[in-house]
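Let us work through a complete example step by step.
Step 1: write down the sequence.
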Amino acid sequence: MLILQRRAGESVVIGENITVSVLSVDGMRVRLAISAPEDVPILRDELITAATANRESAQEEAAPTALLSLLGGVLDGRKGKPKDPEGKEE
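Step 2: predict the structure and record it as tokens.
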């Protein structure tokens, strides 16, 4: 891992065609501009983490009633139809 210090207005060049520029620094917040070819994906780390978690959740098998309970729904045990919060069938 390479660790650099840059000030607003300074840049880092990665390879031949990717440039990361520091636009501004405001306290603990840094604004970056990234210039890269369109075929290079640029994603925030938290989006990759969320996508991975979603894929793993989708691969796990769960009963439909368990999934519905996660969404806050309640099943009418006699007919298997969802009920609204007041107990009426939808």
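Step 3: interpret the result. Residues 7-36 form one domain.
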